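Forwarding the complex inputs:
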Amino acid sequence: SQKIEQNSEALNIQEGKTATLTCNYTNYSPAYLQWYRQDPGRGPVFLLLIRENEKEKRKERLKVTFDTTLKQSLFHITASQPADSATYLCGPNAGNNRKLIWGLGTSLAVNP
Amino acid sequence: NAGVTQTPKFQVLKTGQSMTLQCAQDMNHEYMSWYRQDPGMGLRLIHYSVGAGITDQGEVPNGYNVSRSTTEDFPLRLLSAAPSQTSVYFCASSYRMTGTTVYEQYFGPGTRLTVT
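Prediction (whole assembly, two chains):
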């Protein structure tokens, strides 16, 4: 079945470093992937969308890549700050029939 | 704009009770959806709608009904609550939809439901 997989282990990094989160997809070829941020007790918030032909997209300190050969998207936060601490979700992408597929998310903690 | 609003924020039900979770958006979005989010399970699509009068099932539709009589509102009905429906429920909407492609979604604040 179609699946999006993200690192289930929390990522802990030091303030100022670059955080890199991984999203792998299997059994389908998404035309695009999206990244969202979710804070505890709140709904996800859209960050970036990248299409399969874009390879890389940037927004301020955020950068997303899309490698169709590796079937993978990487999400980078440069010069990370404690305020970047949250769970980051990959997806959704409409596989078949608009049934949107989400990853489970990766928790990021940026330590001061 | 209020964005996507959900009521109530918290609800406790007894097994067998029914209730409706309300969702409204004021952005004139065509696409609306309901998710449940459980620890270790991620976001799972319950039902979705691509416009007024059109709804379809998502990944986990059993035990839930929806209707979409207006563009703005998309209520989710629990027919006979069960403990397995204890979860956080999110409503979302999106204006960008082309064919089978749905782009960025706007989420409501969520409803935390406990069924005892």
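Chain A has a mean pLDDT of 89.
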